[in-house]
Amino acid sequence: MSGMSHGDDPVWEQALNWVILLQETPGDQDVSRRRDIWLAESEAHVRAYRKAEKIWRLTGQVVPVVAEPSPPSRRRVRVGVMSVVMAMAAAVALLVLPGYGRFLWSDYHTGSGETRQVTLADQSVVVLDAESAANVTFSSDRRAVSLLSGRAFFKVSPDRSRPFVVSAQGMTVTVTGTAFEVSSRGDDVAVEVQSGTVAVAVAQGGRHMTASLGQGGRAHVSSQGGSLAVDDVPPAQVGLWRSGRLAVNGATVAEVVAELRRRHAGVILLQDPVLAARRVTGVFDMNDPAVALDAVLQPHGGRVRQLTPYVLVVSPR
């Protein structure tokens, strides 16, 4: 999500990885030496590392510079890192998610690894994907949902007297009764139709663009160019994430990792830009991100290291 996370910044991920490794291996001079070499490579590394240290300290921890005289057992270190990583995630959210308050004060929202089904007053059903938030406003002549961030699937109860309107980042989707999903990730917004028809309108940069979509139709507006693109998607794949499955066709490893991050209650670090650019096609189980990552990486010679149950590191073998 552009502007909302460090998740796709390899320098930030490497800095965070060094901080975590130092916590897991207190007093390991080889780790410290390799960290210092990495820091000396560029000022950007130093800035990212200082920010990672600052966020870590906000959790109440101090990054050790020298070994403790009697370091705690391996088991105690791992338990401590697990709890700190979770606290660190909360600190990161407060520092780098400018829209985080919208989640806290929205009508409905979900966290990482969570989906939520909501039945509205008109018996329409909304399913929120992980890390999503929405507000709902019903009146006598209109049913409106504002998708603040994330992704949602809608199964709308027919009511011709009251159109059902979903808005997200300048895009509005108007229906009277149908099933579709809307996603809003960073500056990108899209709608996919499982059944029925929808009318799409986009107001962006002084332009007004419209499209009519039927079953299997897809409309997408990205931050790059800002034009409204229309294509097709298999209807059976619309909202497939509700069952915990991710279907991709030619997506990059980085894009798949971004999806799995939303389902993982922790941190997934992707460190290699060449591996991140590899293309992937398949259907993966998002309910177990580590297993899904193994399947994604197998054709490309990658591997997943599990530092703790909450920290997964993706890298070449």
UniProtKB/TrEMBL annotation:
InterPro entries the record matches: FecR, FecR_N, Ferrdict_sens_TM
Transmembrane segments: 79-100
FecR protein domain ranges (all copies): 107-198
Keywords, in A-Z order: Membrane, Transmembrane, Transmembrane helix
Alphabetized GO MF terms: sigma factor antagonist activity
Domain FecR N-terminal, chain residue ranges per copy: 13-54
Name of the molecule in the record: DUF4880 domain-containing protein
Organism: Magnetospirillum aberrantis SpK
Lineage, highest ranks first: Bacteria, Pseudomonadati, Pseudomonadota, Alphaproteobacteria, Rhodospirillales
